[in-house]
Amino acid sequence: MAWPETASPYERRSIVSGMRVRDGAGTFLGYVTRVSGEHLYLRRWLLSRHWGQVPLSRIRHVTPGVVELEGHGAVDVAPRSLHGEIATQTFPLVEPEAAHG
Predict the structure, then answer these.
(1) Are strands 20-22 and 66-69 parallel, antiparallel or unpaired?
(2) Is 56 exposed, middle or buried (0-12, 13-18, 19+ CB in 10 A)?
(3) Residue 12 within any structural domain of the chain
(4) 57 inside domain
(5) Range of 46's domain?
(6) Do the domain assignments include residue 85?
(7) Domain of life here (predicted)?
(8) pLDDT (tens digit, 0 to 9) for every residue of the chain, 101 residues total?
(9) SS3 at position 101
């Protein structure tokens, strides 16, 4: 599938957790952990406690399984507040009114 243009929003929507991230020279930087409105968060390996962040503006191209960035080198260290588990909310089951009758 051909994208409308390089680094289009259509490409960015196809980024999912676990994809490999490479810089402009092809050097492996890590795996995608999360994507926010402004940054792509990654880990060097999937169980690493150290996260990095890259501005979405550095994304050059997305191919199946790989996110390619512009430029070379290191990523910024991500804030530790993002390192926890994803908070989820589970509501208790409620019996229908007819069952109480």
Answers:
(1) parallel
(2) middle
(3) no
(4) yes
(5) 19-79
(6) no
(7) Bacteria
(8) 344 455 455 566 688 888 999 998 999 999 998 888 788 889 988 778 888 899 888 888 888 889 999 888 778 887 776 555 444 455 555 566 665 55
(9) coil
Q: What is the pLDDT of residues 49-70, one digit of tens each?
A: 888 899 888 888 888 889 999 8
Two structure tokens written together for 100 = 């109480």
Residues 6+ apart with CB under 8 A from 27: 72
Bridge partners, residue 43, by sequence: 31, 51
Residue 60 lies in a domain: yes
- The sign of the torsion formed by the CA atoms of 70, 71, 72, 78 equals negative
Sign, Cα dihedral of 11, 16, 20, 23: positive
DSSP notation for 43-100: ESSTT-S-EEEEEGGGEEEEETTEEEESS-S--EEPPGGGSSPPP---PPP---GGGG
